[in-house]
Amino acid sequence: MRYIQLATQCMQQIESGQLALHAKMPSLRKFKQLHNVSMTTALNCYQHLESLGWLVAKPQSGYYVAQQSPLMNQLSRPSFVSFTSSITKPQLPAVYNPFVDPCPLGIARYDPVLIPVDKLQGSFRRAMKHQGNHISHYPAPQGEPALRETLSEHFKRIDFHFSAEDCVITHGCLDAIRSAIAITTEEGDAVAISSPCFSGLLELLGVMKRRVVEIPSVQEGIDLDQLQKQMHLGSIKAGLFCTSHMNPQGTSMTPLQKQRLVELATYYKIPIIEDDVYLELGYKKVLPLPAKHWDTEGYIVWCGSISKTIAAGYRLGWCLPGRYLQAYLQQRLFANQGITSPLQLAIADFIQRGDYLNHLKKIRLHLDQQRLQFTTYLQQNLPLNSKISQPAGGFVLWIEVGNLNTFRLRKLAIEKQLDVRIGESFSTLGLYKHCFRLNIGFKINASEIELKLKQLITLVNICSEE
After folding, report:
1. 31: burial class by Cβ within 10 Å (0-12, 13-18, 19+)?
2. For residue 392, what are the contacts with CB-CB under 8 A and spacing of at least 6?
3. Band of the pLDDT at 359, cuts 50, 70, 90?
4. Which CATH number, 1.10.10.10, 3.40.50.261, 3.90.1150.10, 3.40.50.300, labels domain 73-81+94-111+362-463?
5. pLDDT mean over 293-320
6. Are 168 and 143 in contact (CB under 8 A)?
7. Is the pLDDT of residue 71 over 80?
8. Sign of the C-alpha dihedral computed for residues 114, 119, 123 and 124 taken in this order
9. Is residue 242 pLDDT above 90, yes or no?
10. 355-381 vs 447-463: helix axis angle to the nearest 10?
């Protein structure tokens, strides 16, 4: 709805300080003219902001900013857990999700109605026409040159430069990471990871029979001093880190952290696998640079994908293996990992025509709106001692509730056909017992989503009172 979009813009201006504490808002008539909307839309916008606590109405005077930022002033962030890193072993994945159609609150994804199906179908038609008789050829092991060159040009816009010859196309980001793990480590080796860490990465490492060393997360990213200590001791053979909009806590490594990460990898000659699947889903206009940007010696193995930005069903990703390029190609050639050519050519066309950038702008705005709406809703309905993350990108919120029994929460959620990801799934150390992760990719005012969210919050309240 238009008034929701305008309200989100106002909230962003309040958060950034553009609208100061106690500042008077434009009159309804002026607001209507500024945004070329009806008086009803203008009034709905202001009343919506008032209901959420961002504005206050004063009789015979108008609307005023109620506080500098309700989120920043009232919202506590989940705690960063301190511990000493040591080698542990991931559990093999169980059948986690018993549902035929998982609840949208669980899996990190956005509403499929936002996928530009018509534009993508046009790209596929052009790709098939362009391919012609070459469709009978096996896909190139390294990936179609057209897509690799397109990706090279695409990332130049954020000042991230690489050659198409250094890029390998994969079956999504996890597949790119799996190959990177396979060529940089062996069974029984330990891999450094952040804590908490995306459960899918922990499961992958467990299946591949690798051990892990969890590195504590901090506000700036991860505890690089502990990582350096583990490198110095020789206890790890590689690192595996999401560096931008980490799943699940939503933080990003600062540029200084990323530079130091590269320096440590280069000094100790230990490869770092960089999971950057959320890079292009930042809410701010300026996107972060990958750690790979500062890598001159090739020890950073950078992995990305369109699984989160376009659609998971396409299973298309990429990797910059750096100094491990030849080993990476040999590993994939041995496993016969060529990616279907029409898909590669269609995505190349989609990017080249500017449709991808337009889609990204739409998705970022949507996710930022969802972040604000979910956070406000959760503030109003979760127990008072709850702490909610404040991500600058991605799909998820990381929530900590004092005294929450997440094992009981998960049991009750399954009975209610609710998909919830509890904190213990993101660590091998039994940490984060009072935390859970929530997907925010779907509109909260959709009847199904609000119903599921109300059910989940009821269970959270029940399980935090016992």
Report:
1. buried
2. 245, 250, 252, 282, 283, 284
3. very high
4. 3.90.1150.10
5. 96
6. yes
7. no
8. positive
9. yes
10. 40
